[in-house]
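Box S2. Input/output pair 1.
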Amino acid sequence: MAGSTNVTNASDQTSSSSSPTSFWLRKPGILKIRSQRRASAPSIEEDPAGQHAEEHIDDDAGAAPPRQLRPASTLNGSRSGSATPLDPRDSPALQAQDQSLGLDGGKDEIEELDEVVPDRIEFFAPHQPYFWLSNAAPYEIVLDGVRYPTAEHCFQSLKFLPHRPEIARKVRKASTPVEAVRTARKHTADVQRGWRRDGLNLVNIRRVMLLKFSQHTALRKALLQTGNAQLVNAVPTDVFWGNGGGRGRNEFGKALASVREVLRTIDLLGAGSGAITV
């Protein structure tokens, strides 16, 4: 991955993801990244039958427990002491090239804590801890010179690349992650062949995750500091990507754990120092 990125509006190409490496290297310490509390907003999931994607608002989620791993940012990339709510619905579809919806490396406030990482980490709603693990979290990523507002925008766009770039562009320009899903849903017949049958959905979810956590230094560090914790996409109604209230496959959480292993190996080799922040 290059150290600098030339951002254009050109269409990108799909490629295979690297197979995850299962390799435990060390027991990490704990990172806390001071964050803004996010306002409630829809999160994204995809149904197991592969026909639709659904949006949910978790109205019953409790208050965030203290001193958790929570990297976050303001929408314009600035930092302040005020707790301005962050809502993914407020993020524009595209930002200027020198701006970021996520973290602009080197400016994040990180402190070491002594607490032990929990064995199980659940994430779902924007106002809960660990929402930064979600594809709907407001962190831009760049793929093949094209900037996407969130990982969800990128994942949904890849369903139509390279064969239908005009649809992919509509998805990328959607105002929110939820709108990106809805736009993609309107073009189900145009999704590339083998997306689910051949496991391209799983290949590309890992690809998008690797981009996200490679391009945002603080996110990468925070993910590595989760250690061996089980990562659970706690969407109660999704039995494919989520845990489905205990009945689901949690494929999103499994993919995230495999990406964590890849990043851990890269970190051991010292290659992570060249990661870019969009």
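Box S3. Input/output pair 2.
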Amino acid sequence: MRLIWATFLLVFLLSGCSEVKKETVGGYEDWQQSPSFTISKSGPDGNPVPYGLKGSKDKFAIVDGLVQANSSNKQLLHFWCDTPEETGRLLDKDVKVIGTSRETGEQVTAFEGKTQIQNDDPVKEPREYVESVGYLNLPAKGLWKLDAYIDGKASGSIVIEVHDKPGQQ
């Protein structure tokens, strides 16, 4: 009987040691930069032009461009829902983006704004996405996870690389 208990105890202890833990900061495990992709938008002449974004296609994305630390980076956020009807209901809502640094775990409010229609575009039904224009502010270079909230409800997360301003180290 002792042998059975000893065997059971040994198996129990060894199974507890076999779990591999992933590195987490702020409870987030996947620190791969979000992918870039292209959507079509109407150009000045009304014809479609390619528009580069970085993030989660059909969820949350930002303009695919350089983001600098300690700088007001003008940004155009894009949001999608599962259906065009749900996306249309996102208009004129409060947007907040919380940034989390991979290096330090520091969390900051990186962006605040409202969802809207850009450049006086007419509302085209069904609405494919809504946008929010404003300034993205992150205090340090490195990888940052951006968690977007619309009216307090989680609306997607992406990971971006933030760079120093030229001449800053």
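Caption for Box S3: The helical segments are 2-17, 84-88. Residues 9-26 have pLDDT under 50 and may be disordered.
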